Amino acid sequence: MGSEIKSVGVIGAGQMGCGIAQVSAASGYQVQIYDLSPDRIEAGLATINGNLARQVANGKMSEEQRKASLARISGSADLNDLASADIVIEAATEDESVKRKIYSSVCPVLKPDAILATNTSSLSITRLASASDRPEKFMGIHFMNPVPVMKLVELVRGIATDEATFKSARAFVTSLEKEITVAEDFPAFIVNRILLPMINEAIYTLYEGVGSVDAIDTAMKLGANHPMGPLQLADFIGLDTCLSIMQVLHDGLADSKYRPCPLLVKYVEAGWLGRKSGRGFYDYRGEVPVPTR
Ligand SMILES: NC(=O)c1ccc[n+]([C@@H]2O[C@H](COP(=O)([O-])OP(=O)(O)OC[C@H]3O[C@@H](n4cnc5c(N)ncnc54)[C@H](O)[C@@H]3O)[C@@H](O)[C@H]2O)c1
To answer: Whose CA is nearest to atom 8 of ligand 1?
Structure first.
């Protein structure tokens, strides 16, 4: 465990928030996970429990470690429960207005020296920091999905982030046995600046009829040695998140090469958000995923 940080608050019990809570608890931190929706918290804790049980089954963790990890996590729909956290990592929906509202309600609750971090995939850390009461103690800690599996975490300073905050965040992330890469505060940082235009191009390839879902994913798996096809990966990330990132790239860099594919927009408008909603470029409601085009 990092020396200064002992307790971790997580805002948002979605796929990322739960992953961050899980790895933090497994590394010995006390974790409080908050979401607006008690149902999401309950579902999130069940997911964490299932993931930890799988790690026991795979011999990566003992039954005692699983129990101890689980006992270190509590869920709450009351923001006041984040009052004792040394660091709070916000992993709520990728929507700037949602995040800004969260900071204005959570900041008065936090300890004055608590670090506030965001797991945003694309939004400006400097701009988000300005919606908090502590821009010098605010930074981007960008975990990858799925958090328990992916080694990388991008660290992003805002213009005002102080060195002590950066060092504490780096020590915290290192204690989770993750590797760090440092990115400057530009739209979508490093990984998504490169990954999302590739995914968007795969959706254009589908939209223009160059190939089917299956053809495109097979082409990139076998032809470029990607472990997942780009459309499968888009479903995994969440199509709403993919669209938000493309919009941030398009708006932030003002280059038409980042124009979100209209087919991506249509899927999001339909509520077909990928795995998390049961349907995206694949339909996950049956035994095996079936391409939707
Ligand atoms: N999905 C990915 O692959 C990925 C990877 C890295 C980073 N991220 C980032 O992580 C964040 C979360 O993404 P996700 O995929 O977990 O999304 P998700 O849709 O699975 O979860 C978002 C959660 O935020 C909650 N939420 C919404 N408004 C809230 C509020 N006001 N207060 C508290 N909780 C609120 C929702 O109830 C939901 O449980 C986003 O910023 C996203 O860009 C996502």
So the answer is: 121
**Which range marks the domain in which residue 213 is found?**
192-287
CATH number at residue 258: 1.10.1040.10
Confidence of residue 4 (pLDDT cuts 50, 70, 90): confident
Q: How far apart are CA 142 and CA 171, in angstroms?
A: 15
Atom of ligand 1 nearest to the CA of 238: 1
- Say if residues 215 and 162 touch (Cβ distance below 8 Å): no
Measured from the CA of 99, which atom of ligand 1 is nearest?
31
Give me the pLDDT at residue 45, please.
96
Cβ pair 214, 220 in contact under 8 A: no
Number of domains the chain is built from: 2
Q: Is 238 in the pocket of ligand 1 (CB under 6 A)?
A: yes
User: Do residue 22 and residue 104 come from a single domain?
Assistant: yes
Q: Does ligand 1 have an atom closer than 6 angstroms to the CB of 195?
A: no
Is the per-residue pLDDT at 134 higher than 60? yes
Sheet containing strand 115-118, strands side by side: 73-76, 30-34, 7-11, 87-90, 115-118, 138-143, 152-157, 179-183
- Answer whether residue 50 shows pLDDT above 70: yes
- Identify which of 76, 107, 195, 241 to mutate to test ligand 1's pocket (most ligand atoms within 8 A of the CB): 241
Residue 145 near ligand 1, beta carbon < 6 Å: yes
Domain identity same for 154 and 212? no
Instruction: Provide, rounded to the nearest whole percent, the portion of the chain with pLDDT above 70.
Output: 99
pTM of the model: 0.93
Domain with residue 165: its CATH number is 3.40.50.720
Which residues are designated catalytic?
Answer: 121, 142, 154, 192
Of 16, 18, 47, the one to substitute when testing ligand 1's pocket (max ligand atoms within 8 A of C-beta) is 16
